[in-house]
Amino acid sequence: MVVVNPPFPLIGSPELDAIYDLPFTRLPHPKYKKRGVVPAYEMIRHSVTLHRGCFGGCAFCTLSVHQGKFIASRSENSILNEVEAITRMPDFKGHVSDLGGPSANMYCMQGFDLSICARCSRASCLFPSICKNLNTDHKPLTQLYKKAANIPGIKKVTIGSGVRYDMLTGRSPDDSGRFGLEEYTRQLVGHHVSGRLKVAPEHTSDSVLALMRKPSFRLFHQFRKDFDGINRSLGLNQQLIPYFISSHPGSELKDMANLAVETKELGFQLEQVQDFTPTPMTLASVIYYSGIHPFTGERIYTARTKEEKLDQRRFFFWYKNENRSWIQNKLTKIGEDKLVARLLGNQPGRGKKP
Ligand code: SF4
User: In the CATH hierarchy, which top-level class contains the domain 13-17+37-344?
Assistant: First the structure.
């Protein structure tokens, strides 16, 4: 197989390749033998890890804390060898369920000038804006998807890891061409979605998103437009599934009400949602426990009691009959009457299909 690696040395590549060269059995630990199906194993048995690390630096997430901000990528050769090994697994039917990592699309990405990165104290290379020193070239990843899909025995390669759509949208046309963003998006949406593509805007409120170190929801609008356009042009009928978090530090009921309205008006009935859980070593947990943003000294409201958390969560499910009168009363109580008609009026969401 002819392999073309990116034209620069990859951080951690020899070390990762050496680990993935080890003769793993690709089976659950023998202690699970009597338990039958192991759901976590089912999800990853035919998937391949491309890289470690995440430079997103989201305030609630531990990934960049325990895997690091700098991406360590495997060589293309090592990855394609593993895909070939999967085709030889007795239970393999042709579907590779993921070529991913902590984020799907950070493979081979690193600073142009690593000496600048070595002195850098930013928690995120993407927030508040994408660092100019960050090489977000998606071409190696696009090539990799194509090569993996062409391996004999492979019928379909899908991407199960979360895609950072903010790296694909909102860039100048020059950057889009230079980094192969449009080509990647077309390849991803056209060939590597298993019916539903999950992405994580996490919230719609700019103030909450800023606390999360996440980009503006405007970029989700753009990505959705691109996703729908590609589906239309290819005659596909795939769904975009957005993930959201309630009760993140800084999120108030009015923010959840606006989230409900905004996503309803985009045609979503949300299902992939979660309530904020403080995790060790994260900025969000410090705010959750102290009530203070440690970098600004600002007091930040956080929903902590069971009732406060349930109240926030209920706004996700505005479309359920049992929540309607509760939501109406709550909106009146918090002075957001103007949202009642928009959220509970007759204009239906377009259901689960965006
Ligand atoms: S210099 Fe830029 S690319 Fe390098 S670590 Fe800092 S934010 Fe990330």
Answer: alpha beta
